Amino acid sequence: MTGDAEHAERDGEVPAARPWDKQQLEKTIQWTDYEAFKKDDQAFLQTLDSLIRDGIVFLRNVPTDAKEGHHTELRNLVERIGSLRRTWYGDLWDVKAIEGSLNIAYTNLDLGLHMDLTHFDNPPRYQFLHSLQNTHIRGGLSYFVDTYALASHLHTHSPSSFQTLCTEPVRFEYKNGPHHTKFVRPTFELRQGSSQALHAVNYSPPFQGALPLERLANTKDGSGRESDDAERLADLHSALSEFATLCDDAGGKWRFEHQLEPGECVVFDNRRVLHARTAFEFLEGKEGEGGRWLKGAYMDGDEVLSRWRVLKAKQREDVAKKGRTLFT
């Protein structure tokens, strides 16, 4: 890293995002042993550094002895970084097949690419999924796609679609039992003052509501006049379709796949990295035995960035002390 980025990181700014496709992530993906994550600040900092850059990291050898309730090892893992983000699912929550569930996440059906809680005013930035059990089943493969890489591709190859996804609102909505949340936001949220750098992406087809047609005062076509709703709607449908085609990734260029085994935990940026799961079924004669069981948690982005800054400052201080020792 050179120039402005180097100075920014030296001044305590976090690392820049490093967009990836499958081939790139396979070369750089961070795997950290849980003991090192807990006890070695250098390994801890490196893990957070990769999480901020790539939007995804994996930990291995996370204990699975305690499975039930809200005081499993996942809580200790998350609180090594900062505070849990509590939602109506609780501090921690389970992902396993439940007969008759209205939430597709709690079935054995295919769960397509999505982000969690996009219908919230402030969706959680980071998500943790700890594999507790994965036995006597076929399928259940986890896969991930970096939307920052897809957005960069659109910016280069289809700038009009990129611009449409930056400006046109999309409604996300969830209504189930005692809960009804909805929020309207563009697919691509840019950093303040930037025409390209992303702050977050919002994409979750299972929770996408009817497209809002309210006129935006600053929405104009190339001539400088305001576009009519029909034209804007057609442009939005086209841009979303183009983005969805990249997400579906028939050629396998963008999709990173991994079968989460017991003791492994994936941590990813829920405002950047799409996640999904293939359908699974019990092996013949093993119905009711074993299964696929993940424990999940959320965390706000400030928690990760705060911990990174503190660790980075300590690292610089330690380096400075060693330097002074050499000259005394």
Can you offer a commentary on this structure?
This protein has nine helices and 16 strands. By secondary structure, the chain is an alpha+beta fold. The chain has two domains: 31-45 and 57-141 and 259-326, 4-Layer Sandwich (Double-stranded beta-helix); 147-248, no CATH class. The strands form five sheets. Strands 1-2-13-5-16-3 form a six-stranded mixed sheet. A four-stranded antiparallel sheet has the order 4-14-7-12. Helix 4 (41-54) packs across helix 9 and helix 7 packs across helix 8 (229-248). The longest helix is centred in the last third of the chain and has 26 residues, at 301-326. Residues 1-10 have low confidence and may be disordered. Its cofactor is Fe(2+). It comes from Rhodotorula toruloides. Pfam families: TauD (PF02668). Keywords: Dioxygenase, Iron, Metal-binding, Oxidoreductase. Residues 33-298 form the TauD/TfdA-like domain.
Brief overview:
With 328 residues, the chain is an alpha+beta fold. The chain has helices at 3-10, 22-28, 34-39, 41-54, 73-81, 147-157, 159-167, 229-248, 301-326; strands spanning 31-33, 56-60, 92-95, 111-114, 126-135, 137-139, 142-146, 169-176, 179-186, 188-190, 198-201, 255-258, 265-269, 273-277, 280-282, 291-299.
Known CATH architecture of the largest domain: 4-Layer Sandwich
Q: Mean pLDDT across all residues, rounded?
A: 87
Mind summarizing the main beta sheet? 6 strands, mixed
**Which term fits the overall shape?**
globular
